[in-house]
Amino acid sequence: MSKSIRLVSIVVVATALLLAACAKASSDAPAAVVQAYWQAMADKDRAVLSSLTCADYEATALSTLDSFQAVETKLVDLTCSTASQQGDSAEVTCKGSLDATYGAEVSSFDLSLYKYQLIKQGGDWLMCGEK
Q1: What is the pLDDT of residues 16-68, one digit of tens each?
Q2: Is position 11 within any domain?
Q3: How many domains does the chain have?
């Protein structure tokens, strides 16, 4: 097989994989928002966290973020999926944890304990609570 045919084959396969990944991500948009929410929490990114929450939940999200300021945080094995969706509301479940480390002490927050509530506003899914 010539180098140019091999290169074209690699580009075609890579493009197909990229398109498949994008299609999967867009088909589970509420779950992607919850994952991004927890990533912003772990990264302590206040602006991103605010952009991912509905107005009614923003104060709670930012208060939670403030509680993690003095510790190192990281996500461990986070995966989320949409459990149900009706119109402009969705419920998402996750597996994994947010680990907070202070000195030698590690506290692990199990993210599977809650169902995350999302609403769609202005075409965007927003985190709006947990139950």
Answers
A1: 333 334 434 457 999 999 999 999 999 999 999 999 999 999 999 999 999 99
A2: no
A3: 1
State the residue for tokens 């994989």: 17
> Could you report the per-residue pLDDT of 116-131, keeping only the tens digit for each?
999 999 999 999 999 9
- Report CA-CA distances (Å) from 5 to 9, 15, 17, 23, 48: 6, 15, 18, 27, 43
Rounded Cα–Cα distance for residues 16 and 19 (Å): 5
DSSP 8-state symbol, 116: E
Query: What's the whole-model pTM score?
Result: 0.78
Q: Which domain holds residue 65?
A: 28-130
The amino acid occupying position 114 is Y
